[in-house]
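For the sake of transparency, this paper describes our internal protein records without simplification. Because each token names a local backbone shape, the row as a whole describes the fold. One such record is reproduced below, unchanged from the form in which we store it.
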Amino acid sequence: MKKRLQISTRKLSLSDIAIDNIKSKAQKLEKFYDRIIACKVMVDRPHRHKNHGMEYNVSIDIAVPGAEIVVKHEHNQDVYVAIRNAFESAQRQLKNLNKRQKGKKPKVLVLPAMQSAEVEADRLMDFESKLWPMEFGV
């Protein structure tokens, strides 16, 4: 990834394989949106719940011009599955952002002042001509 990538953990240490996995998935995000400014990945292991066992939470914050993509708490008992799910969600959000931004094109209709006055006059004439026979019952 050409842009700034920050990987942080809370209550655990990641293996080199997991870190390389995060780096490669972060690089792939640029295929979906090429103007990423920064990407922050947080891998967290919250307290152990007696019914759920040990779960890993992954959250991703992606800064892009004019917006911020946030993927919060993709959790799973396998850290690699949690990472995969979080990055898949980020890819979907980046695709949607890209589609929205490509679809926004200003639609401007520019008519010269004289032409717009002529168009208004023609509309008024058409409206009056439709009313005139109805007024007198012709």
In short: The first helix runs from residue 16 to 28. The helical segments are 16-28, 79-103, 113-135.
